[in-house]
Each structure stands twice: as C-alpha cells, then as structure tokens.
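Components:
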Amino acid sequence: MARPAQATHPHNDSGPSLRGVHFDKETDGSAQTLLTDEQRQQLTALATLISLPPRSIVYREDADLAWIFIARQGVLKAFRELPSGKRRVAAFLFPGDVFGLAENGRYVNTVQTITSTVLYRIPNDALTELLRRDADLQYQFLAKITHEIREGQRHSIVLARRDAAGRFAMFLSMLEKNQLTGTRGGWIQLPMSRTDLAEYLGLSLESVSRATSALTRRGIVDFEGGHAARIVDRARFEKLVNTL
Amino acid sequence: MARPAQATHPHNDSGPSLRGVHFDKETDGSAQTLLTDEQRQQLTALATLISLPPRSIVYREDADLAWIFIARQGVLKAFRELPSGKRRVAAFLFPGDVFGLAENGRYVNTVQTITSTVLYRIPNDALTELLRRDADLQYQFLAKITHEIREGQRHSIVLARRDAAGRFAMFLSMLEKNQLTGTRGGWIQLPMSRTDLAEYLGLSLESVSRATSALTRRGIVDFEGGHAARIVDRARFEKLVNTL
DNA sequence: CGTCCGTTTGAGGATCATCAATGTCCGTGG
DNA sequence: CCACGGACATTGATGATCCTCAAACGGACG
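Structure:
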C-alpha cells in the first residue's frame, strides 16, 4: 500500500532510506565504479568517518532524522521493537549499504553494530540538497533503494516458509550469493548471534539452534564455532532452498 | 525497472522500481500536489492510458522490462511464483502506486489486476531519461520508493506473527490507515479474494477463513459478503494488532 | 577455577497445513 | 422463473511444525 498519510508537506513523510551505494572505491574489490570522481568527492566532503565498537547503537527508532549513514567496515543490524518487547530484525547491513530510513522525520528502525564498525555519517539535509542538484548521483541512490526492496521481498518469502531449516538455508543462500561477508574457502561467515538470526528469521532462538543441528545431522551444512557455515551437500542444499 | 537496457553503463544491476507517485491530480481526493504542472505534463506526455478487465496480466515475472506503470483506478496484486508452484503476493497495488520493479532488465514479479483497472504506461527508457534530467521529479520517486520499503517491512512483521487472526487484523489495520479502498461508513473494502489474502499473509486459504470466523465469533470484526469488513470492538481490535 | 552469557537439548502444549466434505453465491440455460 | 454448474468460501479431523518452559552444556574471562 503506497498511500502516504502525509498532511502538509509533500515529502515530509520520509527521508530517503539509502543503502548499498558504493561511493568509496575501497569499499569492495569489485571493479564497479558507480560514481564519478567529482561525485565521490562531493559525498566525502559531506561525510564524517565514525568508528564504533560492537553493540553500539547508531540511532534509535523514533529519534529525529539527522544523518544518513553508509557502512564502510563491519556488520550491523536494523530492527524494530514490538509492543510485546520482542524484536524483529528487518535487515543486516554490510559494507556499502546505506541506511537511515525515516518516516515523518523519525527513524523507523534502531540500528546497532554487531562487529566493530566504521561508517560514514552524512547530514541528511546536505545530502538531500546534493541529490536534488545531481540527478545522476541521485539515480545511483534510487537504484540502490530498489535493490533494498528486492531484498525485503526475499525476506518476506523466507518468513512465509514454515520450516525452520528451510528458512535458515535460504538465509545462508542469500549470504552466499551476496558474498557480503566474504567466503573464505567455502566458509560463509555468520557474524551475528543466534538471537539475531532468530529475530531476522522470525523464529525462536531454540528453533534456530535446532535447525543448525538438523542441517548438520543431515549432512547438508557444516557449522564451526557457530559463526561460520559451509555447504557440504550442494545438491540437497539447493533442493531444500527451492523446496517451498 | 528503470534501468534502460544500456549495456555499457555501470549500474546495470537494476533500474529503480517506482511506486506511489501521485502525478495525477485526480488520483485521489487529498489536496497533496507533489509535482509541478510542468512535471505532470512531462509525465503525461510520455504515458499511455490503459484499461484492463479483472484478472488481466499486466506483465509477467522474468519478462523484459519495457514499461513502468502507475495505477489510476482499481486494485492489482504483485506476486511471485515459487518453485513449488505456490504463490506469494508481495503487495497489493492501489491508485497512485507505481510499479514495474525489475532486476537485470527483467520484471521480478507478475502483476495482475484484481478489479477493473485503469493505469498509465510509461516507456522505461523515456522515464529514466526524464528522471536523470529532473532531479526534483526523481526525488518524488525516491521518496515513494522509501515508502514502499516501509510497507515491505510492515509486511515482514505481519508474516513473522504466528497467529492467523493477528495477521489478518494487522492487514485490516494497514488497509484502514491507508484508506486506500475507501471506508464507507466504517466498512473497509476487501476487493481481493481469500486466496489472494492467504498468499499475502503467508497462510493457507482455510486459515484465512478460520481467522475471519474467529474474529466474527469473538465480536471483534464484522464481515459482509466476504469483501467488506468493519471493526466492531475497537479496543480489542487494537489489542490484537499490538499483541505480538 | 567459578561465573556469566550464549547455545544446545528435551518434553509438552499451541497453532497451522493438509485432506476432505459441505456450503454459498452467481451466472447460465432450459 | 427455476434448476444446474462452477468458482469460491466455510467447516471438520488429523498430523506436522514450532513455541514455551526448563535444564544442561560450553566457551570466554577474570
């Protein structure tokens, strides 16, 4: 449903939520260069580099929108606190992701670091002004936003599954495809805790644990230290992912 | 989406998916005017008006991206076909919504009309070019896209619930807030079938039916003809929605 | 070596999916 | 005008899956 309930100002309902813009050449190893040097320069001129230890809150739900952030190093999570006190993780954020989604001038999610993190902090109004002047730059953000929508839709498909092992396998599959955490020798890094995983997958902590056990027992996936996974039986893994 | 099929360009991974831009003054009764007359004129100059009967396919998943659409009248659904043959409805589309989300130059969802529909069809490449020239116009699209992300996140929260009645109640709540279908005397219109609802809520058709029965039996919601709902006990309704 | 936090494992209860049958609405044709 | 047929919706019974509560386990760190 895309009907905003905005009252007076046309676009006061949200600052753009931005994610995935690679504006720093060092951000990843790929050769893609989405922005011109001038655009990159304009962005970095606005940005402040911030370093944060694990478990730091970047901003809280309902806080006034002030900055847009771009992850440079580390992994973060964006989540919402539900009335019952439970949490739902909307997304994990990786280097290159842009975040700071707001509604009516307030952030909609709380964002917290999982690992040590380095990120760019850009004042929202300055960024908005820049985007209004530079349509090409804005188009990069627009493209990244659409990517985020696709990720959200995949998340929805995961959540609609009933079996815990299948959800977990789909999550692993997404991580692997994005290669966001880096796959060292076939090992997929899982920086987040079982609790984070449970809150992202819409499962209880115990169910996630049982799912890993089941995947291991069935010889489909290997886990190491709880923070790394390797797909052992590719055929059955793919079958599980696609068996919905 | 809006990624023209330009091969050489850096951001070929996706064109933006656009939805929710109100570029037609007649689209709804609200006084909001997001675009200037000139922008409106530029858009309408590119658009073709299309009328479709119920159950028409607007475009299919994996088809080559060619047009972006904006709903003017009627209700549609965007869904994906899963390997098992099951369907997952990603979103319902209402007047003012923009759709045509693509990835790698192919639509990611199938879009089908539910009611009789009138929509604008805009060639993707022409729209992209226009957006690249007009940063203000593009910003409206960007804002609408962020709105779509928030909707997707709400959808995820709904899907993470375990109880069918709660999911259904949250859906009703969203419909009511958006007032998309028009609430005539407190009645919320439900143009979609129970099957559509089930595929959106991640439930079986039977569970949706049982959920409506339960809500009626408990005196919380009234249903009429299966395509209209009215909240009888507001307090308990809100409690149900917020009890997660 | 003991504590703390996160994880794993177990048993019982709750909820939904599935399979199957019945019921309802509505358009069609006799 | 009424009877039939098909699509859609409801209701019932059974089995599968997960959540909750509870307890045991493990590694990190002082």
